[in-house]
């Protein structure tokens, strides 16, 4: 059976004024049915651009797919007409955003909003949809009497729960969560993550979890893809990549997590600045920040290659070590 989402050699550019940001530079990514994939990388690495491309929702005129393909359930997203795209968005793929206020309409009660999503994709009466909305709110831990409240009457964590209920309204096959807990307090973050974990267990839908936070990926995902300057530089099972990172960037990300047990050593950090998508270097995009960079790294782009048990790494040093 074809993977649920298959992205091949995807290139995306944003054109603003005279500058062109090369946001994605040959992304290859696969999500299998029922699989949770974490996508991690620094700010500006291209995580949101991957999600928007999969939904064909890049900002018009500014964002352009300049190469590659995206297959959802074996069908080319880039060739879909308006009707098929509408059917895919919401019915098959749902997205949870960082700030739920931006996706909730302040003029409608949360019950009305969730019912509207349900009725857009399923032929149900208003009463039946309201009942389903009530069930969904209960599923995410919100009492049914709050169905008639407006978004501003909820706290940040509760709004994110409403956002999750709306995203689940049509039983999506793929849920994309873009930094869903970044705007929340840590205690609320933990509750939302626990909720997402439970939902994944119960519903067995696929998940693309976009985050800066490696802890979230360790909690929720089976696979992880590390992205740097619009390229996947390491990919594999969470267990393998986290215990045996092979790319210097992944090692840097993992080394930057404070360890509360043992002696308090200085945190490792990745030298230099995040790559500028308008001024990307030749060769390996990470080479200006890499302590092991060679002449070859400055000239050639290392391909993503497998080093056993589905662990992929894009680094010449790995290639030479094997
Ligand atoms: N609408 C836009 N116009 C111009 N450039 C953009 C636009 N959206 C994104 N970019 C650029 O594309 C690159 C990738 O951005 P993207 O938002 O996908 O990164 P990200 O990894 O999701 O970052 P963050 O973690 O900060 O959300 C960045 O260099 C960003 O500045």
Give structural notes.
This protein is of the alpha/beta class. Among the domains are: 99-171, no CATH class; 239-313, no CATH class. It has twelve helices and twelve strands. The strands form two sheets. The protein has an eight-stranded mixed beta sheet with strand order 6-7-8-3-9-10-12-11, with helices on both faces. Strands 2-1-4-5 form a four-stranded antiparallel beta sheet, with helices on one face. The mean pLDDT is 88. Adenosine-5'-triphosphate (ATP) is lined by residues 14, 16, 21, 23, 41, 43-49, 59, 62, 277.
- The stretches of 5 or more residues where confidence is low (pLDDT under 50) are none
N to C succession of SSEs: EEEHEEHEHHHHEHEHEEHHHEEH
**Total strand count, please?**
12
Distance between the termini: 33 Å
**Class of secondary structure makeup:** alpha/beta
| Bound small molecules, deduplicated | adenosine-5'-triphosphate
Strand order of the largest sheet: 6-7-8-3-9-10-12-11
Gross morphology is globular
The major sheet is characterized as: 8 strands, mixed
Query: What is the arithmetic mean of pLDDT?
Result: 88
- Using the CA coordinates, give the radius of gyration: 21 Å
* Percent helix range: 25-40%
The helix tally amounts to 12
Strand content: 15-25%
Layout of helices and strands:
Layout: E1 5-16, E2 19-31, E3 36-40, H1 47-54, E4 63-72, E5 75-76, H2 82-91, E6 93-96, H3 100-103, H4 110-121, H5 126-139, H6 156-168, E7 174-178, H7 186-203, E8 206-211, H8 214-220, E9 223-228, E10 231-237, H9 238-243, H10 248-255, H11 295-299, E11 305-306, E12 312-313, H12 316-321
This protein binds adenosine-5'-triphosphate.
Subcellular location: Cell membrane
Keywords: ATP-binding, Cell membrane, Membrane, Nucleotide-binding, Transport
GO molecular function, one term: ATP binding
